[in-house]
Amino acid sequence: MTPSSVKRDLLNVPNLLTLARIAVIPAVVVLLERQSPVATFWASVLFGLASATDYFDGYLARKLKLVSLTGKFLDPLADKLMVMACLVQLAAMGWLEAWIPIVLLARELSVQGLRQIASGEGLIIAAGQQGKWKTAFQLIGLIGLLAHYTYPVNFGVFTAEINFHRVGWWMLALSIAFSLVSAGQYFLGFLKAIGEKAARPESQ
Predict the structure, then answer these.
(1) Which are the contacts of 105, defined by CB distance < 8 A and separation ≥ 6?
(2) What is the pTM of this model?
(3) CA atoms lying within 13 Å on the CB side of residue 103
(4) CA distances for 168 relative to 41, 146, 165, angstroms
(5) Cα–chain center distance at 186
(6) What is the distance in angstroms between the CA of the first residue and the CA of the last residue of the chain?
(7) What are residue 192's DSSP bridge partners?
(8) Between 117 and 94, residue with greater pLDDT
(9) What pLDDT score was predicted for residue 2?
(10) In angstroms, rounded to a whole number, what is the distance separating the alpha carbons of residues 162 and 148?
């Protein structure tokens, strides 16, 4: 890729949405640092809206035929930066156990390392359904953890006080379970693919 093509890719609509996702990270962290019900509520709203662009940038890239190498690099990077920034900040504030971001970061680095090795070997290992559940529970959990406080929620027929931190923690716990299962499945898939490649006549 030439510098001009990278610049052109960066300025297309899907990648601008991805870059906007990265740009809101400092705003979310600053709001979270204020530790007030109003500020953390808006931090969770901003995080939720930014997370929603993850669907739209991919949809637009396919619809407008703007899928690019730059976008394929930026999209997962933006997701990981958002998640890790929020997890680390929550842990630094004492609103989340420190082992949680450590486990999730270790999982992401391990799987990313395996993907790079698989790519170098010309292997494609499909992600399982558990990875999609991991992402869904992780985003819901983080929205709850960012909101943190107890807020009244109107369900139409009745209003209930919901502790968003507790709900978010359990959603994140489910995300960690799916995360570890999907990492194990990816590792087994990697070993299977490597074994099958080694067994081919042309590999001997």
Answers:
(1) 84, 87
(2) 0.83
(3) 16
(4) 13, 8, 5
(5) 17
(6) 35
(7) none
(8) 94
(9) 54
(10) 10
Identify the DSSP state of 126.
Answer: P
Amino acid at 68: S
> Which residues are 150's β-sheet partners?
163
Q: How many domains does the chain have?
A: 1
State the burial class of residue 4 (Cβ atoms within 10 Å of its Cβ: 0-12, 13-18, 19+): exposed
What CATH number did the domain enclosing 27 receive?
Answer: 1.20.120.1760
**Beta bridge pairs of residue 151:** 162
Element (H, E) at 28: helix 25-33
Distance from C-alpha of 140 to C-alpha of 119, rounded to nearest angstrom: 31
Q: Is the pLDDT of residue 203 over 60?
A: no
Q: What is the pLDDT of residues 60-83, one digit of tens each?
A: 777 777 677 666 777 888 888 999
Contacts of 119 by beta carbon, 8 Å cutoff, 6+ apart: none
Cβ contact 28:48 at 8 Å = no
pLDDT at 101: 93
pLDDT at 127: 66
Q: Which amino acid does the sequence have at 160?
A: A
Q: Nearest-CA neighbor of 64 among 144, 9, 108, 22?
A: 9
Length of the chain: 204
Residue numbers of the domain that contains 128: 3-203
- Strands (E) located in the chain: 150-154, 159-163
Q: What is the pLDDT of residues 15-58, one digit of tens each?
A: 788 888 899 999 999 999 999 999 999 999 999 998 888 777 77
| 51 and 140 Cβ atoms separated by less than 8 Å | no
